[in-house]
Amino acid sequence: MSTKKKTTWQKVRKFLNDLHLWAGIGAGLVLFVVCLTGTIYTFHQEIDEAINSDRYYIQAPLSGQVMPIEKLVAAVEAVVEGGTPGSVSIPQDPKKAYAINVRVEGQRRGTNYLVNPYTGEVLGDTHTGASEFFMVMFRLHRWLMLDMAIGRPIVGWSTVIFVFLCLSGLVIWVPQKVKSWRQGLKIKWSANWKRINHDLHNTLGFYSVFLLLVMGLTGLYWSFDAYRDGLYSVLGVEKPQWGRRGNNAKEEEKKEYPASTLQLVDFLEAANQALPYEGDYRIELTSKEKNTLSISKTHTGFFVSSGRDQLTMDKYSNEIVKKEIFSEKPLNQQIAQSIRSIHTGEIFGTFTKILYFISCLIATSLPVTGTIIWINKLKKKRKRKSSKKIVKNNAEALIPA
Known about the structure:
8 strands; alpha+beta; elongated
């Protein structure tokens, strides 16, 4: 490399380093909160279930005989006055309770009630002390517990800065000499604390940067409508119309269909034949305005895809009207339907959640170690200026009057 090119590259690195430093200082506090809450939220479901095991887990009898799902739904309806059951979640684990979602007037998502499938006992709902704590973490993560119109753009622009920090940090990390590569891949624990702090920032940041970029780029999906629209456009898929219905749906609402004579277990048996693998089921309870019933199934295990397979079944004949297998969809559709699981780390089950937890924990430490590096540089700069001033004063003192 010529001296001229080398000087240019050094200038570029210094410019990026300065931008990286000041952008990190400016957004550091927000990013610390967002990363910390994201780390805590990663295993929220597992922690909630462990703390409230008396609600989520049951003693399965030796017979393993479960009650008809219709009776379980009726048991929950008896507890919730004026509630309309919307879905039943059936876990693959025989020691876990079923979850029946019931929505009362004024509710958007409804409440999940946990019921013992062997006795019909309603164990309570999923609103626990742990779930309330994790909801606070969620609100801090998404909009800093502020008004959504204020907090969401603050988190969004901080995430944009976060993406820049990841990219600029990766460029700054690249050593100028090939022999220095190994040095950037490990932490020198035998060095002084300043060097260790520097290595913790650089090395751990490098190892986690690719997952952090994925988190940042997918996180912007919930911050900016234009970004979300652009993402769907790039992927070449139609944007979902949440809560909206077309004219055909409105016409269909006016028509009522008679109740089905089939039991929900009949649909489960047909679903087991169509989807012959271990997994968790979710049955969307059909209404009078529909002549079909929807069943979805997700794989269970340590390393499994979070993609959901969907069956639409005729509620009178039990025949499969439509079958959507996630793995058979085009890649762009798989990505579009997995934005949330890609962001949270659920994309490949517990395996990726562990990787995300570690990476997010590292991301939480980066504003801290970066701030310490900045403070050390300020002290070093002041010390250098002080030394120059002393030398200058001494030189002036030696000059004869």
